[in-house]
């Protein structure tokens, strides 16, 4: 049996940056909080907790503390409140997310009806919406939600982790009901690259294991993309893996991981699979030792 990992699996630039900022802050101070879990990965959140960094949702508990804003960003009014209450703010909002927030504001100021393609309950989208003045952005996750609407000028931006094909469907519908459409593709390249590599591996595998938080939208998207092609399991840790998954029909096992999945979790998953399939491969200690799937 082959066990291979998709290229670009695991932490993306924005998440790596946020985690590094948090760990650096923890070395220098011990009164550190993140506003909401810093990333959608319970194992990493627990690890940070062990380093003295706790997650706080209630903003009445931020007085005189050092607050880290996570890579998804935070609502504008909450950031302003933190600025008045906290001893210091470390803004770990991913620069690509910040850019999307700026686009939302600019499109509004230029007279466009802003439409955000994304999940209205996702923290990144909740924050993004708050940067469009007067709460005037519309959030849609499906073109069907546009039924009955018509617009003069529309500016479209997207949650960074969405699929390009989904954005294309939304834009196509908006074109039918608007005079002018301006689209800024704010889908993060890290997401697209990860999705593409996962799809390629899924097509070359008999089984896919997608590793990452069950609450991570980019990981769920990878599970969907893989699941549309081949039998796929979405797991958070190696403990969820069952030996029965790897029967004699399974020759090629693919692993991929969301942008918020730490390397050590992926290594544990790889080692657990090797243990179960028992094909003589040795267990590894470093993420870089996992065989990466490359197209022939
Ligand atoms: S997926 Fe992209 S936009 Fe989101 S945190 Fe990572 S690098 Fe930033």
Model description:
This protein has 296 residues and is of the alpha/beta class. It folds into 3 domains: 2-10 and 190-289, 4-hydroxy-3-methylbut-2-enyl diphosphate reductase, catalytic domain (Cobalt-precorrin-4 Transmethylase, domain 1, 3-Layer(aba) Sandwich); 13-94, 3-Layer(aba) Sandwich (Rossmann fold), CATH 3.40.50.11270; 96-187, Cobalt-precorrin-4 Transmethylase, domain 1 (3-Layer(aba) Sandwich), CATH 3.40.1010.20. 38% of the residues lie in helices and 19% in strands. It contains 9 helices and 12 strands. It has helices spanning 13-28, 42-50, 76-85, 95-109, 123-130, 164-177, 189-203, 217-227, 263-277; strands spanning 2-5, 32-35, 53-56, 66-69, 88-91, 113-117, 138-140, 151-158, 178-183, 207-211, 232-235, 252-257. The strands form 3 sheets. It has a 4-stranded parallel beta sheet with strand order 1-12-10-11, with helices on both faces. The chain has a 4-stranded parallel beta sheet with strand order 3-2-4-5, with helices on both faces. Helix 4 (95-109) packs parallel to helix 5 and helix 7 (189-203) runs parallel beside helix 8. The longest helix is centred in the first third of the chain and has 16 residues, at 13-28. The model has no long low-confidence stretch (mean pLDDT 94). Bound molecules: iron/sulfur cluster (SF4). Iron/sulfur cluster binds next to helix 1, helix 4 and helix 7.
